[in-house]
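cron nightly-structures :: item 1 of 1
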Amino acid sequence: MTATLSLAWKSVLNRKTTALLTILTVAISVILLLGVERIRTQAKTSFANTISGTDLIVGGRSGQVNLLLYSVFRIGNATNNIDWKSYEEFSQHRSVDWAIPLSLGDSHRGFRVLGTNHSYFEHYRYGKKQALVLEKGQEFSGLFETVIGSDVAKSLGYDIGTEIIIAHGITDVALAAMKIPHLKWSAS
């Protein structure tokens, strides 16, 4: 047995460069495999912690990833929307406990505007079931009132009562704009 090990060791020493390259290649492969697995599990955890208590996201015809990015992360644009009648049918279905309508497509000074109703404040949970908290003011109560994020309010120097102009699309230029007279501020 010792003779076999001695012969194997002499063979490895004879091929030092090839043996070292083989060991290096295997080590790099293992490190890459472990790194990819770690990134995969962290991404999955991150997605799971982004929105909680939600079983189903319903939207217009689109890809699943596009719908997720649009509705949860506010990335991209909706390719199709569903009409209000369809939303009401979904929300009144006996299997649905609650529903939140979301509509993106407008902006204010480059910041996205999310159209929704009070269900958003009542049911939306992020992270580990954390509810939205208003830093100042209260939820909107009328058609032409809004709640803005505290970061947006700080960066634009807004306070409660500031009038804002909503533009269609993601732009700073208001070609088709609507004035929102009362600002009810601001979710953190």
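cron nightly-structures :: done
The radius of gyration is 27 Å.
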